[in-house]
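Appendix B, record 7
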Amino acid sequence: MTLTICLAPAHTIAYPNGGGHFWVYLQWALGLRALGCDVIWLEQIDPADPVEETRRNVTILRERLARWDLANALAFTTPAGAAPPGDVATGALDFETAAQADLLLNLWHSLPAEVVRRFRRSALIDTDPGLLQTWMTNGSVKVAPHDVYFTIGETVGTPRALFPDCGLQWIYTPVPVFLPEWPAMPPEGAAAYTTVAHWWGGKFEHDGTTFWNEKRVAFLDYLELPARARVRLEVAVCLAQCFDECRQLMEPHGWRVREAWDVSSTLEAYRAYIQRSRGEFSCAKPAYVRLETAWISDRTLCYLASGRPAVVQHTGRSKFLPDGEGLFRFRSLDEAAAALCAAEADYEYHCRQARALVEEHFDARRVVARVLERALEQPLRRAV
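Structure tokens (predicted):
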């Protein structure tokens, strides 16, 4: 019997310029399809948003999904679980049809309980490990009850965790990468090590500790890296209002700064930007470093899958992530400079190791299959 899986992404309809953001959820959808599942893509529409803006964003969403023959699998809901207003959902599946799916695979922690409870079975995928549990504990985020809870943080719900488990059983899953869409590419000469980032993210307090959740703070300790590493370094920064501030901070130290929407606003542009890069260099948001969940970015995995080494900030001890074989994880400016030099010293070897790491641990077909097995075998754990 063919399984029907309803996939709920984190509100991609509200972020039409986020090519990288969209890839996060498309990897899951393509993995599901490769396993023979019927996929329903569930988006939430806020009736308070201007109708013309919503209509435009729906058009962009349909065009993106059409390339993978998913445009007819689109369904909409509202925060209250009702039908969307006006004609914005014309031609889409109705929510009642979506709710008949065998499983809701929810990748948005803010999906309302009124929506989640309409499904016969639901699984949450926590994509903000450590952060989500902290937000749940301090009451800033209220997650709807689900039957099963997954997380992409290796330490979440274990004795190694530096934060509460919120009374839930968390099952670790790697992030999926759909490898046919991310082939290893030959190097392109003297390209830069790049990354794509939001610059600002604010801070929050928990248990007397301040957690910064922004890349600006993360990069401050690494401003001198271009002079130390002697490779080209580039950062593409999202949100135009932060662009000038970022340039003034980083360019005097040898960084190249680009507007992220110029290089990653579509699925194709985001992939091309990664695959034309020499590799990735990126700092993690300080909260991820402090919470030590062994989190790795979906973006970093796209670099690795493309056969590009990645030099990224250490986010905790991992059972399988290396610190020097295609993937380098640094804790200081000295370690970051040394890692870039090591990657360059045997570049082709590290390109091969990067791809091999993703093939072994992050192949979407295997990752998604394991998630489905666990999600559909678990006894019901839904809160009353």
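Remarks on this record: DSSP finds 15 helices and 16 strands in the chain. The chain has a mean pLDDT of 93.
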